[in-house]
Design goal:
heterodimer; A: 342 residues; alpha/beta; Rossmann fold; 2 domains; seven-stranded mixed β-sheet; five-stranded mixed β-sheet; 15 helices; B: 346 residues; two-stranded antiparallel sheet; 13 helices; 8 strands
């Protein structure tokens, strides 16, 4: 075990995979700068900078994957995936089904996601629920360096498309590029346990669809993903002072979803609080309620999500994104409305 | 209409001083995220905006401040917006990349290339509802590799729309030189779509003004769209804190922290042959050197410096103009900062 930053963990896992598998290539805008270490180690032929043409190069990555390459294609920010959506929605996600299972698309789509640094609603979205809605796409969202590396390796071992989302508050180079820009005059609420942490000496894949129980709790179950996991853990410490024992589950992978871990926890606590930085309606938070209901569980439910377009102004943005205060409030509501659910 | 170099210079100076003050707010941390300035684009914007009338629409990219200022939007609304104040142009919801003014038919986008289809829609509405009125798209040359921009150009020609596509070409798509990403001369590319194209030195405001006049005349008379290809330099790089410029400006300090992992990448056991690795390293170093060289030469192509040279024959008038603009801008920022700090305190 050693310490690594979130960004370095992704890079080292990706480099480990690239060293072992010559079919892996990186392509995307400005990767000669954003992936400069891999650019030097693996050369121009495997780390390929593209024009700002997401429709073309994501589309090309899909067919390159069908023809023997394993691309890690980057669209910078997940918001920009809108430009390339057809390649993912109608092609990457459907080739396997259309070909009767005879043709796989081993593709990783890598993008930065998330808000909390004042960039506005076209650069700070999460969109994992929107992407996971499409059958045929896997979506992973790590929240710690160890998971970031392990999930990158799993994404590269998958036979089918995986959207790999790294939160900008966790990846220091993204936050520096789009937020601080070398300034010392701005502060961001970076979860320290997410931005730095212990990682294995050699990376092993973390299976897609396995959630992590970050904190066991008997009074309610918080389920979250990405940076919000850390907000939940912070909220759980606050709640502890009110004698509320809150558990926190980190999904790590939005699709496939670890139904078992979620349902097991909710069956014990009978209270589910979903904390999701993605949009509230028609998304992950509703899906989690649905799977618990389908499992026959009876439980009380609240959610803390992003409800509208993310505002530019920091003070407005902080209120719209799930923050610790909103989580504590929802948890108190959930536990106080029905003090003895059992 | 006659060209009025004094007014053009005043507009450019207002925009420049506002953006320099915005830069200072950003440096102080009063603006949190990205900040893309139009510093270096002023001659293009001034030369085009001088022809804009009521009813004309603007589709802007992520560098919206200069066009909004020159269109006559109260700059204090912009400053308040950047400070995230509820009294800002978009109540603090949009920020500098998402500036909107329904009154002036101005829409912005932070998505590269999106201004081109936006201008097509504005132009269609003008063609059907406001004859003689025009829609203008501002976009960078990097955006000319987006499918939506090329599709929009085709559509504008097919429908003979009153649109003007102003391509501000600084030869860089963020950190990637256009030479590596863009084939064919962009004016030729537009002509390939059957769109008349004018190439112009975008740091010469007079040249832009005359080129724009031709495009506006054609559009207003129902002669269809024009592609205006104007060169420029971004004096502050792609955005504030732009990594290549940071590396170019403080090579020793910044390079120390960046070079170790890069150097290690030369020697890992598995990877490309050593020659290819060295080649890749030199590509990065060359980009830093290129940025450094370009920026040290940029003051010569600064559109304000060039415009000012034409006004030196009347020093008192020039002094009056500059003092007047400075005073206006100072007052705007003073009152904007007072308002927002008062509100935050209260």
């Amino acid at each position: 075990m050693k310490q690594a930053s979130f960004a370095d963990a992704i890079e080292s896992a990706l480099a480990q995979a690239m060293a072992d598998d010559p079919t892996i290539i990186i392509l995307g805008e400005d990767v000669h700068i954003f992936r400069s270490n891999q650019f030097v180690r693996f050369g121009e032929q495997r780390v390929i900078s593209t024009p700002i043409s997401e429709g073309a190069f994501v589309g090309a990555a899909v067919s390159a994957a069908m023809a023997g390459l394993h691309p890690v294609v980057e669209v910078m920010l997940v918001d920009f995936v809108g430009v390339a959506m057809d390649a993912l929605l109608n092609h990457a996600a459907k080739i396997e089904a259309f070909s009767g299972g005879r043709w796989k698309v081993p593709l990783v789509v890598r993008a930065a996601c998330g808000g909390g640094y004042g960039d506005g609603g076209q650069h700070e979205q999460s969109l994992w629920g929107w992407l996971a809605h499409i059958p045929g796409l896997n979506v992973v969202v790590p929240s710690t360096p160890a998971d970031a590396g392990g999930l990158m390796l799993a994404a590269l071992e998958a036979e089918n498309p995986v959207i790999y989302l790294e939160h900008k508050l966790l990846s220091d180079y993204w936050l520096d590029s789009l937020g601080a820009g070398g300034r010392k005059t701005v502060q961001y609420d970076v979860p320290q346990d997410g931005a730095h942490g212990y990682v294995p000496d050699d990376w092993v894949p973390i299976p897609l669809g396995s959630a992590a129980v970050r904190r066991a709790g008997s009074d309610l179950t918080m389920v979250s993903v990405g940076v919000s996991v850390h907000r939940c853990l912070e909220a759980a410490s606050h709640l502890e002072r009110n004698d509320i024992d809150a558990g926190v589950i980190d999904l790590r992978s939005v699709s496939p979803l670890d139904r078992e871990t979620i349902c097991e926890a909710v069956s014990k606590t009978r209270r589910l609080l979903v904390v999701d930085e993605d949009y509230q309606s028609f998304g992950l938070s509703g899906e989690l309620a649905a799977i618990a209901l389908e499992a026959g569980l009876s439980f009380d439910y609240r959610r803390v999500c992003t409800t509208g377009t993310i505002p530019y102004a920091r003070q407005l943005e902080e209120h719209v994104l799930p923050n610790t205060g909103r989580i504590v409030e929802a948890a108190l509501e959930l536990t106080q409305t029905h003090p003895t659910p059992r | 209409m006659e060209i009025d170099i004094w007014t053009l210079y005043a507009q450019m100076l207002r925009s420049r001083l506002i953006e320099k003050a915005v830069q200072s707010l950003w440096e102080q941390g009063l603006i949190s995220g990205e900040m893309h300035l139009g510093v270096g684009e002023e001659a293009i914007v001034a030369g085009v905006l001088a022809h804009v009338q009521e009813g004309d629409a603007l589709a802007l990219d992520h560098r919206g401040t200069p066009p909004l200022v020159m269109r006559g939007i109260d700059p204090s609304l912009l400053v308040q917006e950047f400070l995230g104040h509820p009294q800002g142009l978009c109540h603090g919801m949009g920020g500098h990349m998402h500036l909107f003014s329904p009154e002036y038919l101005i829409a912005s986008s932070g998505i590269v290339g999106a201004s081109a289809p936006a201008a097509v829609g504005f132009a269609l509405a003008n063609q059907l509802r406001r004859r003689g009125k025009v829609a203008i798209a501002f976009l960078g040359e990097g955006a000319m590799n987006q499918g939506m921009a090329l599709e929009a150009i085709n559509l504008a020609v097919v429908w003979q729309l009153p649109a003007i596509f102003v391509c501000k070409d600084d030869q860089w798509a963020i950190t990637t030189p256009s030479a590596n990403t863009t084939v064919a001369n962009l004016a030729e590319r537009a002509r390939g779509f059957g769109m008349p194209a004018i190439q112009v030195d975008g740091s010469d405001v007079e040249a832009v003004w005359f080129a724009a006049r031709e495009a506006f005349t054609r559009a207003r008379q129902g002669g269809g769209p024009t592609f205006l290809h104007a060169s420029c330099s971004h004096l502050e790089g792609h955005f504030l804190g732009y990594i290549l410029l940071r590396l170019a400006r403080k090579p020793s300090l910044q390079m120390l922290s960046n070079s170790w992992p890069l150097l290690k990448s030369l020697f890992y056991s598995k990877g490309a042959p050593f020659r290819q690795r060295l080649q890749a390293l030199f590509i990065i170093l060359n980009l830093i050197n290129q940025t450094q060289a370009e920026h040290s030469a940029m003051s010569r192509s600064d559109p304000l410096v060039r415009a000012r040279l034409k006004l030196l024959s009347e020093p008192p008038r020039l002094e009056d103009l500059e003092n007047g603009v400075r005073q206006e801008i100072n007052q705007i920022f003073e009152s904007a900062l007072n308002t927002s700090s008062f509100d935050k305190g209260g």
